[in-house]
Amino acid sequence: MSIKQKLETLATERNAPCVTISFNTHRTRPDNEKDKIVLKNLVKEAETRVIEKFGKRPVQALLDKLSSVTEQIDVSYNLDSLHLFLSNDTLEIVRSIWPTNENIVHVSDAFVIRPLIKSYSRTEEYYILLLSQGGVHLYHAMNDSIVKEIINTDFPFTENPIMLTDPVQASDAKRVDNKAREYFNNVDKALVKLYRDSTIKTVVVTTENNYSLLQQVADFPSVYLGNITLDFNNSAPHQLVDQGWKFIQSLQQERQKEAIAEMKNAVSDGIVVTDLQEIYQAALDGRGELLIVNQHFSQPVVLENRTLKVVESGEGKDVIDDVASTISWEVVSKKGRVVYTEQEHLSDLGNIALKTRY
């Protein structure tokens, strides 16, 4: 599932209890070895609090998840924070490229999804498909980071049948082409299956000829964002995500230009709101069609029903450290669009602007 899908699911769950564990992590050794200790301590705290409040028998399924969850986490894939959501019915583990304010254990009848809102609103998820003579590998990426390699019944493809070993068959151009089409069609079907579950699109890394052939046999060519020409000397995962993120950023810049032009055209129609309070209320009401936010804008607030109070520090009781992320989720969850940008063309509208539906 994508972050958005996880958010939608977790936001609606009500259970007794729902356990949320959030803590900052490290990307590299030896620091990420310390994350194991932090996780173990937080899980122990969660177990103690759950047993004290609910006993053991009614929440045995949850306690079983808590006792085994540390074994399911490979710290070598840690990013900047880790978020666990557990109940009798649910277990979700989410890595984020955004740090959290503090390490917390939260036990109530609902999950604390605020960290995921920021991760969703300021993160681009995509797959990187490495298609080479050595086979096929698929990576799940967020911005400039690899989250994990996709390993399931379809991926990776460890053998490439295009490489015919029989010299007679290999010299038959039509046979080679048919074999390649069959192979790429199988890759496409496996990828489309993932797309239907996650709605995450893919950047392909391969030769121009291979990408052209993949597009010809693809059931849904639109799931592919484009191709990066394969450099066999730079095909390690960290090198692939560097190339993939640059490609994604170029697409983002085009989307940002179009969104800013749309916003400025809407000013004359009187349907653009730039006051933070008015933006928040319009988003709550489902009136937000397009929200544009300066990538560096972050405003801590305290929310009281439909109003917000701006505060200086992101720390403290009931303080939301980034109201822009909260507003972003309100817009997206009500079928609006959100664009974060560093482009200065937004500057005359301020750090945040909302085009309303009416």
Automatic annotation (TrEMBL):
Domain of life of the source: Bacteria
Name this polypeptide is given: Uncharacterized protein
